[in-house]
Structure formats: structure tokens, C-alpha cells
Design a protein that fits this description.
The protein has helices at 2-31, 54-69, 83-91, 102-110, 159-170, 189-194, 210-218, 228-237, 255-258, 280-292, 294-298, 322-331, and strands at 42-47, 73-78, 97-101, 119-135, 150-152, 180-182, 200-205, 221-223, 245-249, 263-275. By secondary structure, the protein is an alpha/beta fold. Strands 1, 2, 3, 4, 5, 6, 7, 8, 9 and 10 form a ten-stranded mixed β-sheet that branches.
């Protein structure tokens, strides 16, 4: 009788244990966060920008944060001419993630370029500010004064080139005929200006842009105002748009150049962009790292401090990627 009871107790214990294991398994599955399919793995390519620009500096520091948060993912940074080239790379599968200005995205979509309908947004990052830089003793006081000048307008695939050509046009100048356009980036514009090989250059980037900051410390420069009237013409010429707005370059961004004066300009948002091909778990993790690394990266790249969770989801003109949506749902109060 004792042995019979022992066998019965063992069988009951085994059955109870099995039921408990099933219950715990179901509970773990039920409590698993939506979209959590395990740590992402594989490889990704992040298309950045010119070597000394904010896109590249931001990308280099983001790479470190991504490697920590996604240790099973191999990350490759790839420099580029800027927003337009970045979008072409991501849309056609040459890269997985990139940064591009909202006006460049809108133009890519409007023109129906290859892969345009596959583009998706992840994060609204920080604003780029257009900076028209001239020597301090230059006679250039407005964009229209650039007639006949040698002007750095950015590389062909850059967002700078896009907005520079548009600003010249609304100022009454033909970008190809009324100025001598020099298609170089921020990595070479400053030295050309100091050598007298440029009379002015346009740049569009986060504030401060390190190359402009360093130039202002060793060479006397000014920022040419881009007044609200010019910005209104820009908005009108590009159709109804929310992508260009009047802004001010704060007086303390380039103290030597601005001499205590804020300078009117035009601003446009930067977006973190991917496509619908990108894995949802990878995109969710990438988005999380961008938001969580803001303060750490912002200590070295000031523009990153302006990434704001409250506005990050507004990636107009792009729909938000499903993986990014999952992240925003997970942090919603």
C-alpha cells in the first residue's frame, strides 16, 4: 500500500509539474512585448554624408551605440555626397538606413525615382540650417549679390545642392549661368574660401557645423542673412510645403563670425529613413538606439540633442515603418 501511494504521488507530481510548465510557458508568451522576436542579427549598411559633415560625425557615434545595443549585427558606415545620394542608395537596396532632409525626400517621391514607394520613415531627427558663408570683407549682402561669383553649391547628390539651386533661383539668378557653381562639399569648401578659390559657399547642416566653426576661428567670415521674404518665395516656388521654414541661427553658434548677432535663415528637418524591406525587429531596435543615445551623442554632436521623442514619429512625407511604430507603441505612456 505504501508503494502504491508513492507511485500515485509521483504520477501526480509529474502531472502537476507538466501543467505548471505549460502555464508558465503560456504566461511568458503572453507577457512578451509586441513585436519582440529576439535580438536582431545580420548586417546593415548606414549611408551617412561627407567626411567632415554632421551626418558622418553623427553616424560614427551612432555606430558605437548600435554595436552596444545590437551586438549580433555587423554595421557598415558608408560616406556619401548627401541626402539625394543617400535616398537613392536606400531606395534601391544599396544601403539599409540613412539620413536625408525632408525636402530631398519630398522631391524623390514627387519625381517617382526608383524605389520611391518603398521608402519609410523611422525618426524625425534635428533641423538643418542653411548657411551662406562669405569672407567678412565680401560685398555679398544678399543671395542676389552672388551674381558673377564662384559659389560652392554642394555635390550633385547632396541636399545642399538642392536647396542652394532653389535659393539662387528664387533670388532671380540662374544657378548654372549667373554664378560659377563649384560642386564641392563641406570637406573642401572652407579651404577653397581661405585660398580665394571660392567667393562664397552654401552649407545646410546641424548647428554648429564643425567645419564652419573651425573656419570661423582661423579666418574672418560672415553668414549672409536669408530673410523671411526669400524663404516665402522658396516655399511658393516649391509648392505648398511644410518642409522649409524661417529660422534664426542663434548668435552664439559661431561667435567670431556672427559678432553677437542672430542671423535669419531657412531650416528643414532631417529624417532617419529606411524601406519596407527592412526587418521590423531590426528597425525597432535601431529606432530605440537613436532615441536612447541622444544625450550621449549630443555631448559630441550638438545637433543630436534636438532629437525629441515627442516629435520623432512625425516623419512626413514618409509613412512610419512598422518596426518604428512598434517602438513608439512600447514607450507610449
Amino acid at each position: 500500500m505504501f508503494h502504491a501511494l508513492s507511485r500515485f504521488d509521483r504520477r501526480r507530481t509529474l502531472r502537476t509539474g507538466a501543467v505548471l510548465a505549460v502555464v508558465l510557458g503560456l504566461l511568458a508568451w503572453w507577457l512578451q512585448p509586441e513585436g519582440d522576436e529576439g535580438d536582431p542579427s545580420g548586417s546593415l549598411t548606414f549611408s551617412t554624408g561627407v567626411p567632415s559633415g554632421v551626418y558622418q560625425r553623427y553616424g560614427e557615434r551612432l555606430e558605437v551605440a548600435l554595436a552596444k545595443d545590437m551586438p549580433e549585427v555587423s554595421i557598415q558606415l558608408r560616406t556619401s555626397e548627401g541626402s539625394q545620394q543617400n535616398l537613392a542608395r536606400v531606395a534601391t537596396g544599396e544601403a539599409d538606413f540613412t539620413i536625408a532632409t525632408a525636402d530631398a525626400v519630398a522631391t524623390y517621391l514627387r519625381d517617382g525615382r526608383p524605389g520611391a514607394q518603398r521608402l519609410r520613415g523611422c525618426v524625425r531627427l534635428y533641423d538643418d540650417y542653411v548657411q551662406l558663408v562669405v569672407p567678412r570683407d565680401s560685398d555679398v549682402r544678399t543671395v542676389s549679390d552672388l551674381r558673377g561669383k564662384r559659389v560652392g553649391v554642394g555635390q550633385e547628390g547632396s541636399g545642399v545642392r538642392l536647396v542652394a539651386d532653389r535659393l539662387l533661383t528664387v533670388a532671380g539668378l540662374d544657378p548654372a549661368a549667373d554664378v560659377t557653381p563649384v560642386p564641392v562639399g563641406i570637406d573642401t569648401m572652407p579651404v577653397r574660401l581661405t585660398q580665394g578659390r571660392l567667393d562664397a559657399f552654401f552649407w545646410s547642416g546641424g548647428l554648429p557645423t564643425a567645419a564652419v566653426q573651425e573656419l570661423s576661428r582661423r579666418f574672418d567670415i560672415r553668414l549672409v542673412p536669408l530673410e523671411a521674404e526669400l524663404v516665402a518665395k522658396l516655399q511658393s516656388a516649391t509648392g505648398p510645403t511644410r518642409f522649409y521654414r524661417s529660422a534664426m541661427t542663434p548668435a552664439d553658434v559661431y561667435p567670431q563670425a556672427q559678432q553677437g548677432q542672430a542671423v535669419p535663415t531657412v531650416a528643414v528637418a532631417n529624417l532617419l529613413v529606411t524601406t519596407d524591406r527592412t526587418d521590423a525587429a531590426m528597425t525597432e531596435a535601431f529606432t530605440r538606439t537613436v532615441i536612447n543615445s541622444r544625450d550621449g551623442i549630443g555631448r559630441e554632436v550638438h545637433a543630436a540633442q534636438l532629437v525629441d521623442l515627442r516629435t520623432a514619429i512625425y516623419t512626413d512625407p514618409l509613412d512610419v515603418h512598422d518596426g518604428a511604430k512598434a517602438y513608439y507603441r512600447s514607450v507610449k505612456p
